[in-house]
Design brief:
The chain is of the alpha+beta class and 355 residues long. It has two domains: 4-232, Rossmann fold, CATH 3.40.50; 236-349, OB fold (Dihydrolipoamide Acetyltransferase, E2P) (Beta Barrel), CATH 2.40.50. It has eight helices and 20 strands. The protein has a six-stranded mixed beta sheet, with helices on both faces. Strands 13-12-11-14-20 form a five-stranded antiparallel beta sheet. Helix 3 crosses helix 4. The radius of gyration is 25 Å and the shape is elongated. The protein starts with 5 loop residues before the first strand and ends in a 6-residue tail after the last strand.
């Protein structure tokens, strides 16, 4: 293991009698952004607290640039932190907030660093303003500048955009990417928003019930999910129970036959769950070989695309996303057929429960 970046190795942690982290392992490459992603209660904030030094894990090691931080006090870890509530001092100006923690520097050097950081977050003109007079997005940028002021070895961000509206979140995500390109600081961000994680981070750590389900780039995790949970959590995934009938063949619960373009690692008769992304289904108004029979419910226009909601014969909902072609659309309850791109289907053991 290289002595660069941040390494989380074999970390366990419990609160009272409940174990909340189970053998957590992942690396954050030096100068890169990694997002911890998962539902509420999955353990991602606990990991961030362990990295920050706010808790000491029961077992395992946390190291930064080769230095073991596991039992180092918070103030000696050289970390910058940005939280959802900003935690700015309302009685201090923007410049004073950014300078907080720099009292040990000579006055001129302190002024130069604050000036440089305000320029980085595009708030030079607001240096003498007070936080209550700023927008939420501006306050968040002040918080980022303050976190960077002490020249930390790594930056920790806990749901940094969670309190902002969607349009502002998108704007600040782009700002964070720009700043990261300029600064290149090792960053760990906690979020439950999969779109935010994919927009900001080069690597995702997907967590569930205190365990790491998968680590990889957004593309790897979306295209090659390691589990049914990951498949359903990152993007939408239609799910159907099916039985393996041959080396590359499936029969769904409603009797539809699916011929895969590859050999499956399951014995004939095995119960599986087959999943499809909405964009990997095409629509037909007439029966087609290998198509999934469904009943049309509704269609929603999303720019150039049409999002189709339908139901399988057993009542299971299924969703497709197709290009709007201006052709005839089915009516509610009409029979339709959804043709899967079999190269994009995923198959998981049937002992997983459909969410």
């Amino acid at each position: 293991m290289a002595d660069t970046g941040l390494q989380i190795s074999n970390v366990d942690h419990s609160y009272e009698d409940k174990q909340v982290l189970h053998n957590v392992n992942f690396d954050v490459p030096d100068g890169k952004v990694v997002a911890l992603l998962g539902p509420s209660g999955c353990g991602k904030s606990t990991i961030l607290r362990a990295i920050a030094g706010l808790i000491t894990p029961d077992r395992g090691r946390i190291s930064l640039q080769g230095r073991d931080l596991t039992k180092v006090q918070v103030r000696n870890r050289k970390l910058g932190m940005v939280f959802q509530n900003f935690a700015l001092f309302s009685h201090m100006t923007v410049a004073e907030n950014v300078a907080y923690g720099l009292a040990h520097l000579p006055r001129q050097e302190r002024r130069e660093r604050v000036s440089r950081l305000l320029e980085l977050v595009r708030l030079t003109a607001f240096a003498n303003r007070f936080p209550p007079s700023l927008s939420g997005g501006q306050q968040q940028r002040v918080a980022v500048a303050r976190a960077l002021a002490t020249d930390p070895s790594a930056l920790l961000m806990d749901e940094p955009f969670g309190a902002l509206d969607r349009a502002l979140r998108s704007e600040l995500q782009a700002e964070l990417v720009r700043m990261q390109d300029d600064v290149g600081i090792t960053t760990v961000m906690v979020t439950h928003d999969q779109e935010e994680a994919q927009a900001v981070a080069g690597q995702l750590v997907v967590m569930n019930e205190g365990r790491v389900e998968q680590v990889g780039s957004p593309e790897e995790i979306y295209d090659h999910p390691a589990s049914l949970f990951v498949n359903g959590f990152i993007g939408h995934a239609n799910q159907q129970h099916a039985t393996v009938t041959g080396a590359g063949r499936l029969r769904t619960a409603d009797g539809s036959e699916i011929a895969m373009n590859r050999t499956l690692n399951y014995l004939p008769g095995a119960e599986v769950i087959v999943t499809s992304r909405p964009e990997d289904l095409s629509l037909s108004l007439t029966e087609q070989p290998g198509a999934i029979a469904a009943r049309f419910d509704r269609a929603v226009v999303m720019g150039r695309f049409l999002t189709i909601d339908a139901k399988l014969p057993d009542g299971t909902a299924i969703k497709a996303q197709v290009l709007r072609d201006g052709g005839p659309r089915p009516g509610k309850g009409d029979a339709i057929w959804l043709i899967p791109d079999t190269s994009r289907l995923h198959v998981f053991p049937g002992n997983n429960q459909i969410n």
